[in-house]
């Protein structure tokens, strides 16, 4: 009889704290975008981007640039890969798993813009569709504050 291992439902606090530090602080571009992780599970990751008000304190005329949307979706695909890799190697310490992300990189990215990115804050979600030994495939979504789907993405990432 073969032994099957079910993925963990949650990560250890040390792994979550380390991954948040990498994603939100050490990846400077994510910090510039204002990406903040709100949920980090092995099967799905969620983050937010908050718009900054203009010089007179208004949000209504701010439209999130397509490049910001694309970069946010790409970052989320990478984060989903990090979570999946972390879940795959639960036999290692959190520190060992956090060192596995040095070779992670985007191979291909597709973004479909469905609606303009207008609002004060946005939610981004991502999941890994397949995690191979060398390449991972992901699906990402970008939502407005009202819950409407604004953009979708799919990506391929080198993970070895």
Automatic annotation (TrEMBL):
Which molecular-function annotations from GO does this UniProt entry contain? fatty acyl-CoA hydrolase activity
| UniProt keyword Hydrolase present | yes
The record's section on CDD domains has: PaaI_thioesterase
UniProt xrefs under Gene3D superfamilies: Hotdog Thioesterase (3.10.129.10)
Q: One matching Pfam family, short form? A: 4HBT
Positions in coiled-coil regions: none
Domain Thioesterase, residue spans: 62-149
Task: Locate the transmembrane regions by residue number.
Answer: none
Q: Does the keyword Hydrolase apply?
A: yes
Q: Which UniProt keywords apply?
A: Hydrolase
Recorded hits in InterPro entries, A to Z, give: ACOT13, HotDog_dom_sf, PAAI_dom, Thioestr_dom
* Alphabetical list of PANTHER family matching this protein: ACYL-COENZYME A THIOESTERASE 13, THIOESTERASE SUPERFAMILY MEMBER-RELATED
What family does the Swiss-Prot or TrEMBL record give for this protein? Belongs to the thioesterase PaaI family.
This protein's name: Thioesterase
